[in-house]
Each structure stands twice: as C-alpha cells, then as structure tokens.
From TrEMBL:
Domain TNase-like: start-end pairs: 143-280
Top-rank taxon, per record: Bacteria
Matches recorded under SMART domains: SNc
PROSITE patterns reported for this sequence: TNASE_3 (PS50830)
Gene3D superfamilies assigned: 2.40.50.90, Copper amine oxidase-like, N-terminal domain
Species of origin: Paenibacillus oceani
Pfam families (UniProt xref): Cu_amine_oxidN1, SNase
Protein name according to UniProt: Thermonuclease family protein
SUPFAM superfamilies named in the record: Copper amine oxidase, domain N (SSF55383), Staphylococcal nuclease (SSF50199)
Alphabetical list of InterPro entries matching this protein: Cu_amine_oxidase-like_N, Mao_N_sf, SNase_OB-fold_sf, Staphylococal_nuclease_OB-fold
C-alpha cells in the first residue's frame, strides 16, 4: 500500500516538474501612469497574453468620470469629449459612436470589474507602451505635439519638423533624462564607443518617422532646445528604450522629473544584467556560490 502511494506521489511530482509554465503564471506586469506607479486594490490578471486591470481605478487615474449601471452590468466613462461605453462580458465596446472589438472581454473578479488596460487607456486618448525587460506597462495621458524626425542632432537630441503648421521650422528636441556617455568618460572605452554608436544608430532610425513630443515642466532649455519625452506610434518611449538597452545613462535635470523613477529602474536593470555600456561591469561582478 505504501509503495503504491509513494509511486503516485512520484508520478505527480514528475508531472509538476515537467509542466510548462504559461504566461499567465509569470509575475504580473507593473503599471506606471504619467511617471507614477499605480497600485490596484486587486492584482491585474493576464488572459491570453492580455493584461486586465481594475476598471474604475484606472478610469479615475486617467481623470475620467464613471457612471455604473448595476442592473445592466454596464458603465459609461467620460474624459473630455470622449465617451466610452461597455457592458461586462460583451465582445465589443463603444467609443463615442464607434464600435471597438476587445481582444478579450471584460470580467468580474472578486467583485471588481477588470478590463484590458491598453483598450481602456487608448480609448480615452492615452498613449500605451510596453517595457519588456522590467515588464512595465507605460501609460501617458499628457498631450503630445506630433512631428517628423528630420535628422539626429548632437548628443541625445533630434531635429523635428512639427506637423500641422503652415510653414514648419525644425525644432531641436532634447531627450529628457538621457545622457549618451562620450568616449573618454567613466567606464570601459570599448563599451562607451559601442554604446554611443548603438544609441546613435537607434536615433538615426527615427529619421522620417512620426513621433509624439511630450513636454515636462521646461518649455525650452538654455540652448533653445525643447526638453521632451519622445514617443513612437506604437507607444514606445525612446528615452526609456535607450536607457533600458544600456546605451545611455539617466540623469535627473530638475524640474523635468516626471519619469525619473522609471528611468532609474531601467538603468538598474540594464546595469545588473550587463546590457550595453554595462556589459564589462556586469562580467566583473563576483559569481554567486549559490
């Protein structure tokens, strides 16, 4: 009898050992809105690779007013001139008069209504990006000025032609919080050379692309440049990408500190994992005996 029981335990143990881990079992993504970490009353869940978060909390953080119909299990959210309506469980929602199919339906978990975070944020006019190294969802609801990158300027800066102006003149945009180390500075000469080349290559790939320019507190710096966060069409923040890849270091320049917490986290992760200019430093760290 004991031998049979032991055999069953062994089989169950082997099945657990070799059962693949699905995306839903990974640590849930973090979320930052306009530079601030968002803590929810219930944990977000991941369904078919889509992150769902508590609806009311997110809507209120985005500055929307919410009307909830308990009988219909439906809500109406208004932010500025945008109106979002949805009935829990439906495959589609309405933004103003436009029907939008959801990647996965909203659901009720523990008495809380959860909705796909990207859908809700974008439906109300916010920008949504994803930082894969630290599994962070970035949401920016700040207004953005559209433009087309015309060329790379010196350092962490690009020239941008504004869109929508009758006679646009190129403006130099300096990436807030980003410093591309020059060879001869602190660190390995080889890694600094590679970092500068890689960062320059990324910025050069922006030429001809449409970007969104998000201003912080400073309108123009002492060199008549526009300090800004630069966004691609898919929500990627270029400032964050350069730091996350280890091609730049972050620097705090008050009062433009909106995304400082994110940049510090990305730099720590890049340094710990030896990406970009941090590669030699990481390989020099002592190997843990555990």
């Amino acid at each position: 009898m004991f031998e049979r029981f032991a055999a069953v335990i062994l089989v169950v143990g082997l099945l657990l050992l070799f059962t693949p881990v699905h995306a839903e079992q990974q640590a849930q993504p973090k979320l930052m809105l306009n530079g601030n970490a968002i803590e929810f009353e219930v944990q977000p869940v991941t369904v078919e690779g889509i992150t769902l978060v508590p609806l009311r909390h997110l809507l209120e953080e985005l500055g929307a007013t919410v009307e909830w119909n308990q009988e219909m299990k439906a809500f109406k959210a208004t932010r500025g001139d945008r109106v979002l309506q949805y009935k829990i469980g439906d495959a589609a929602a309405y933004r103003d008069e436009e029907m939008i199919v959801l990647p996965v339906p909203g659901q009720v978990v523990g008495g809380h209504t959860l909705m796909p975070v990207r859908f809700v944020a974008e439906a109300l006019g916010a920008e949504v990006g994803w930082e894969s190294y630290t599994r962070t969802i970035l949401i920016s609801s700040r207004s953005k000025r559209p433009g087309v990158v015309s060329k790379v300027a010196d350092g962490a800066a690009v020239e941008v032609l504004p869109i929508g102006e009758q006679h646009p003149a190129a403006e130099t945009v300096r990436l807030i919080g980003v410093n591309i180390p020059a060879p001869g500075g602190e660190g390995s000469e080889q890694s600094l050379q590679l970092g500068k080349a890689a960062a320059g290559s990324i910025l050069e790939q922006l030429e001809g692309k449409t970007v969104g320019i998000e201003i912080d507190a400073t309108k123009r710096d002492s060199e008549d440049r526009i300090p800004a966060y630069l966004y691609l069409d898919d929500g990627t923040m270029v400032n964050a990408m350069l730091i996350a890849e280890g091609y730049a270091i972050t620097e705090a320049v008050p009062p433009d500190l909106r995304w400082r917490e994110l940049f510090q986290s990305l730099q720590s992760d890049a340094r710990m994992n030896g990406r970009g200019i941090w590669k030699q430093e990481a390989t020099a760290l002592p190997v843990s005996p555990i």
